[in-house]
Amino acid sequence: MTTTFFLVRHATHDRVGTVLCGRMPGVHLGAFGKAQAERLAARFANENVAGIHTSPLERAVETSEPIADRLGQPLEVCEGIAEIDFGAWSGTSFEALAQDPRWAAWNNARSNNRPPYGETMLEAQARIVGAMEQLRSRYADRSVILVSHSDVIKAALLYHLGMPIDAYGRFDIDPASISTVVVGEWGSKVLRLNEVVAA
C-alpha cells in the first residue's frame, strides 16, 4: 500500500524575500498569492485527493481554503507541518540577518546550527516526516495534500531523497509549488519537484 503526498508551499505574501516571517502572526496572502491559490485549486480539481492538511499559519490556511472549497473537503490543521521555529529571528529582515554571523553559520551548516531560541532544521525534518508517517496509515492507497513552508518541505524531500540536510540549497521550492512523493512500506520515491502551475 502506498500514499501519495502533494507537498504544497503556501502562495506568495507581500514579505516573501524581504522578511524572515517564521511563525509570526498576521502574514496574509496578497492579491497575487490569492490568484496562485486559485490556480492550485484548479490544478487539484481532477486529482483524487482524500485529505487536505495545512500548517496553522495564516498564509498556509489561506492557500489551502480555495483547494478545500474546490474539492468539497474539510481542511485539517496539522502542527507537524508548521514553519520552522526561527525563534528570535522571526520577523527580522534578511538585510538585518545578513549582518548576524549566526545567520551565516545557520546557512552554511544547518545540520549543527540552531536559530536563537528556535529549532534546528533536523528537528523540523523529524516533525514533518513523523506527520507523513502518521498520515500514511490513515490514507493508505490514497492521496493527501499538505500545505506547508519552503524549508519544511525541503527537509521532507531531503529525507525521502536520502540526502543530507545541508544539501537544502541544491533545489528550490517556490511559492505555490507542488512536490509529489509516494511513500510505502518499500520506501519512497519523489515523482515531481517544485511543480509550478502556470497562470
Automatic annotation (TrEMBL):
InterPro entries in alphabetical order: His_Pase_superF_clade-1, His_PPase_superfam, PGM_Phosphatase
Highest taxon of the lineage: Bacteria
Name of the protein: Histidine phosphatase family protein
Lineage, opening ranks: Bacteria, Pseudomonadati, Pseudomonadota, Alphaproteobacteria, Hyphomicrobiales
